[in-house]
Amino acid sequence: MPRHDQPAWRESMRVRFDFNNAMSAAVGAQGLDDREISRLDASIRQAHATLARRRRAGELEWMDLARATDVVREILDFVESIDGRFENFVVLGIGGSALGNTALSTALNAPYHNLLTLTQRGGKPRLFVHDNVDPDQFRGFLRVIDPEKTLFNVITKSGGTSETMAQYLIVRQLLIEQLGDRHREHIVATTDPKSGELRRIVDDEGYRSFPIPPGVGGRFSVLSTVGLLSAAATGIDIDALLAGARYADEICGEPDVWRNPAAMNATIHYLGYGAGRTLSVMMPYGQALKDVADWYCQLWAESLGKRVNLDGEVVYNGPTPIKALGVTDQHSQVQLYTEGRFDKIVNVIAVRDFRETVTIPAGFPPSAGVNFLGGHTLNELMSVEREGTIVALTEAGRPNVTFELPEVNPFTVGQLLVLLEMQTAYVGELFRINTYDQPGVEAGKIAAFALMGRRGYEARRDEIRRRRRTDPAYII
Amino acid sequence: MPRHDQPAWRESMRVRFDFNNAMSAAVGAQGLDDREISRLDASIRQAHATLARRRRAGELEWMDLARATDVVREILDFVESIDGRFENFVVLGIGGSALGNTALSTALNAPYHNLLTLTQRGGKPRLFVHDNVDPDQFRGFLRVIDPEKTLFNVITKSGGTSETMAQYLIVRQLLIEQLGDRHREHIVATTDPKSGELRRIVDDEGYRSFPIPPGVGGRFSVLSTVGLLSAAATGIDIDALLAGARYADEICGEPDVWRNPAAMNATIHYLGYGAGRTLSVMMPYGQALKDVADWYCQLWAESLGKRVNLDGEVVYNGPTPIKALGVTDQHSQVQLYTEGRFDKIVNVIAVRDFRETVTIPAGFPPSAGVNFLGGHTLNELMSVEREGTIVALTEAGRPNVTFELPEVNPFTVGQLLVLLEMQTAYVGELFRINTYDQPGVEAGKIAAFALMGRRGYEARRDEIRRRRRTDPAYII
Questions:
Q1: Min CA distance, B143 vs chain A (Å)?
Q2: How near does any CA of chain B get to the CA of A37, in Å?
Q3: Are residues B416 and B295 both part of a single domain?
Q4: A96 located within any domain
Q5: A465: containing domain
Q6: A204 with A228, same domain?
Q7: Would you say residue B391 lies in a domain?
Q8: Tell me: the pLDDT tens digits for A400-410?
Q9: Which H or E element spans position A300?
Q10: Considering only CA atoms, which of B389, B333, B337 is closest in space to residue A316?
Q11: What is the ipTM of this complex?
Q12: Whether B246 contacts A458, CB under 8 Å
């Protein structure tokens, strides 16, 4: 039995959510009291029930991704079949088809993964996640990889993502030039199982492909084939990752807000939003979790930033997520967090035990001013700095909460991702908005199509040209 | 004569500031009109005069960094003296002693610099900027560098930065173990010329060192020895960088807000702040400028996030900076920017000409839906997506401004950095706060000292322990 199936081990690896410093007892006027939270009890229970009902109705497929063990099998078989064949695994994707991949790799692969030797990487490929269409970056990228030793994973559910499809077209030609017919072995597609441009291409070209469940939107897809394939290919234990995800799902099965961390943090953010705390800072103390913050920013922004609510009323709703990194950003953002506007809730992610212990050498005669560090460890330094920041924020009356991971491993990371997804789903219900669409992205996309000269968008192009104001008096 | 001294070339490389979409003619109610701006004219002129006066009085040394040509000479001589000796250049620093270094490298070194071969890098070292004390990352780092081939640049003006000094102590011991007495050749310090712990150590140990002008604070130090040494060591033309900085200084010599881009964007942000647009998004369209956004976030947050104003009144002032990246974050943040609260001003950085042109292959029979891309370039795609986003933001009534760089080169990057610094200085004057201190960072630092058991902080430690509330009812 793998350890992640043992109850005692699971309990020891439970991510804890500490919201002491979101309460008025700790931060005064900017904090909540028990009654405020309990007053929301009915709404939370209703949100909980709505999510459960929609899940049963098959409308929230993302909530069941961690149960798709057949997908895991299929991915692991594929990864085994390519074992040792590729030096580079390249994701061509953007937004929800990139952020989760990066987050998992930064969290769970070794630091500086791409700079390690093949042996140091245990024979696993380097990972590149290409989520921009910068020509300099793209050309530069081609200098550091050998296409012959590279597998490209094209990820787009609709197949209509211009950025990704442009990259694909360039890569395809490059592969054909270098490898002829064998080029198809270097492309694997992750897309809708039935519809869309990329699916059509897959069928015509005969690429290996993995399906994205049609009901799963990009920002909730990290635990689908979207995120799992690159994770498994680079050596991450995706079984344990999904076990952690299922554990968090179990924890979030609790309808009582006082026992459900995701529901509680949703409540803290929802009530905070109403009181002007419209910014949600995600600040992991640990380099490995840096890109989880980036992933969270998409999840929070696209899910909750909505012009209309479910009744069609214009609400311009939208808390703004902000990524930060401890201890680094203590020397960049914490000045503002402690002294600026009372518009933030700071989410700290703490790591109790790092894998390594690094001792700071004891004693160095010439400098009394640094000797207090000697004999301590970087681990202690990280920890006291985190505590120091929390104390400073709290004393300055700034609400903050802490997710504590016992350690960073696939099980705890899987948990954390689901807790944050569930939290987002709860807040979406409380705000009474559609958490799962992104109509605001369309406008820019259509404008880009029009300016690119795509057929069918001529009228829009003319309109944009007509309306574009560039008064030279407003250019300096 | 270098081209950056030729007036025609300079003019052709001028960074343009377009604020059409910050005006009510473009964005309606959230925009400004000419009169609002002109009404602030006297305040801007006063801010301009105050800065000029303080500069003459030697109080704003950062404004004259670009004129210190002797420093450039000294740095270039040093870089020449170590030419070919090191494979790795490692910055040990944090905050203002790290963000500028990273920004310059990402902007002006080749993409994937650290993954290129020595030959591809033109014999220049890889660059690592170590701005965290994560034990896993630090241990991981030691697996990818050979200390024998590495130069460590310890940067801290005060010498009292715990994170940096801890790293230094660890690295020093490692070097001594491996290299004995020769270890000193692998350390170069950048610190106050006279005072502080690191200066004392430098004097005792005999390290090579570079002075940081005492009046220059971390977040305004990128163009001092702090940022220039690693830039020059990795092959960046720091002469051209400073020429660009001087050109921006010249442009900002203009007291008329309608002719001074830094003063104008300061005005737009200041007036916007008063109207509830308290967030400043920095969104470069170009991977190279990604970390300029990060650098800007420190500059803006630490300079403007202040509890008290110059009269000692409690103001809790603080616009919040947010980093984003085009086109990437169109698929992450733009949904919120177009549909969420009217609380943002989006600063786009556009790049007119990239170094490379990457063509998207024309035509691919199986898929009519992607064929509209064929024959175009990634350059065009980048450009229409930027325009598309600007159109979408503008039509949604969201104020946005654009800095356009003719290309990304040392001259334009030097300009951009100074424009953003000057803009910050102007806003600080308009807010009537002390732009140059960071009292809020102290509280956390002292709490960390106390928790680390540093002598002299016992009372604070006891107080923290006494006041720390962790009610288990608030932990889930």
A1: 8
A2: 12
A3: yes
A4: yes
A5: 446-474
A6: yes
A7: yes
A8: 999 999 999 99
A9: helix A290-304
A10: B337
A11: 0.97
A12: no
